[in-house]
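Record filed here:
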Amino acid sequence: MSTTITINGNAVALPSDPRVSLLDFLREHLHLSGTKKGCDQGACGACTVLLDGEQRILSCLALAVQYQGRAITSVEGLAGDGQLHALQQAFIEHDGFQCGYCTPGQICSALGMEAELRRGVPSYVTDDLGLETIALSKEEVRERMSGNLCRCGAYNGIVAAVTEHHVQLHARAPAGEAS
């Protein structure tokens, strides 16, 4: 049985105290301050990280030990080779942030949202639940990102950044791989 968790590609020992939240483990034990503590009640989405690169989770509501042997990606794990992740760059280009506090959670949530689309998971506003490929309309983005609050109100920039990234992702994907 593994006593480690993989954080941003690195195996690390789980905390000895099983009551430590994943958020506190990232911020206080591993000094990864990108993931933010907003409400600490799962209502704002500032603490959103990715589980196994695809599933978005609220790290304030999760215990670190729940993810023993699994892979967690925080905003610090997205950039590579000294380059921002394409979605991070899109947030900059579309002014998808003002104070930036919610931005790490927004970005991780948007990447989780794209994984949901690839899997064909419908949202509340999806018109046809039988579709294998769900079109990413502005309404879909807004609905799927509704768990991530922005106190500054940069929603138009966030939607534009997420939409552009999705379009670029599909433009790069070989035929048959785009959602």
